[in-house]
Structure formats: structure tokens, C-alpha cells
Inverse folding.
């Protein structure tokens, strides 16, 4: 197919897909996904709804694509901050936790989606588990990088990473919904302190219970 106004067919298709993704993200983060229709999202993107199906099989596929895009952006932001921070446990922990809150604040739609849309959608709940797993792997990698000797067994390190990651997700979700009466700064400090406290786990795990 010949280019149209110097733009190839593949480029035009990519532009239409990006427009639909942005329209869907805006809807998800403002009105909520319960308002989603193929025609409504296509109209919001300035496109005929027939173009929807050249990139997405249905609304569920679009929802996952939009969330995956935001999750990838968040993970990239975390990794970039971690790589640029000093190789010092508390310093890196502080900047990474702060970066998570900065990422959510950068686009208010992210907070809305995390607080309201994830808990309400079985499809997003399933995807949440995959995101938690991805962040968990970052946690484990950072532990190995920052500590010359990891004091936990591989099994206990994974249990710790899962407990911390899933717990932080739920805590931030409750805070974003207004269900936790605490400030942003205090919550960041608390999460940092909690993460630092995991270094005290080995003695507790090895202790003989009476």
C-alpha cells in the first residue's frame, strides 16, 4: 500500500492504535471502565469505530494493553531511579519508594485506576498479580545487588519480596482511596522503615520458639 501524505500504512495504523490507547486510558482514569464502549472510545479518539478492530479484538484486550503500558512505564521509572541511586541500602530504598509515589502523582489518572479500577475488575485483578510478580523480581535483584551476602535463603527471600510487594500495593491503594489517615511523607517514611526492617528477619526466623 502506497504512503498517504508521506505516511506509510503501518505508521497510520500505529497512530490510530496510539490514539485509541490514549482515549481508553483517559476514560479509564476519569469516568471508569464501566463507561467503556467500542464506539465511545473510537469517537473519543477521533476515529470511526471500524478502526478499533484492526488493533484490538475486544474491550478486554484494550484494557489490558492500556494497563500493561502504564505498568511498563512504572517499572521503567523504578529501574531508572534505582540505577542512578548510590549503592547504599537506605538511600536507594528511599529514592525508589519516593519514585513510586512520584509516578502516581505525575498523572492523576494512575491513582484513580489503582484505587478504583483494579479492585473492581476481575481482569485487572489477574493482571495485578503479574505486576506484583514483576516488581517482586526487582526487589530480589536489588537485594542481591546491594548486599554482599544475602542473609535469607532463596525461599525466604521470595516470601519476603512477595509479602512486602503485595502489602505495599494494598497499603497504597487504601491510602489513595482516602481510607488511611496519614500523610504522603509519613507513608513513604513508614514503607522505607518497613523495608529496612526486613534485614532483621534472619534472627527471627532462626529463633527457637518456646
Amino acid at each position: 500500500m502506497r504512503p498517504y501524505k508521506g505516511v506509510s500504512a503501518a505508521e497510520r495504523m500505529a497512530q490510530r492504535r496510539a490514539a485509541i490507547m490514549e482515549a481508553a486510558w483517559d476514560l479509564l482514569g476519569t469516568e471508569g471502565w464501566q463507561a467503556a464502549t467500542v464506539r465511545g472510545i473510537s469517537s473519543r479518539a477521533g476515529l470511526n469505530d471500524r478502526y478499533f478492530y484492526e488493533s484490538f479484538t475486544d474491550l478486554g484486550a484494550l484494557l489490558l494493553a492500556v494497563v500493561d503500558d502504564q505498568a511498563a512505564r512504572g517499572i521503567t521509572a523504578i529501574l531508572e531511579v534505582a540505577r542512578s541511586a548510590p549503592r547504599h541500602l537506605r538511600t536507594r530504598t528511599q529514592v525508589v519508594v519516593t519514585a513510586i509515589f512520584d509516578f502516581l502523582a505525575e498523572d492523576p489518572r494512575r491513582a484513580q485506576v489503582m484505587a478504583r479500577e483494579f479492585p473492581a475488575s476481575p481482569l485487572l485483578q489477574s493482571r495485578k498479580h503479574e505486576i506484583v510478580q514483576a516488581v517482586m523480581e526487582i526487589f530480589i535483584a536489588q537485594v542481591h545487588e546491594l548486599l554482599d551476602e544475602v542473609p535469607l535463603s532463596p525461599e525466604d527471600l521470595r516470601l519476603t519480596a512477595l509479602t512486602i510487594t503485595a502489602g505495599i500495593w494494598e497499603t497504597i491503594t487504601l491510602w489513595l482511596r482516602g481510607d488511611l489517615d496519614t500523610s504522603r511523607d509519613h507513608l513513604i517514611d513508614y514503607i522505607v522503615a518497613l523495608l529496612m526492617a526486613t534485614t532483621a528477619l534472619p534472627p527471627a526466623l532462626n529463633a527457637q520458639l518456646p
Observations:
- The chain is about 75% helix and 0% strand.
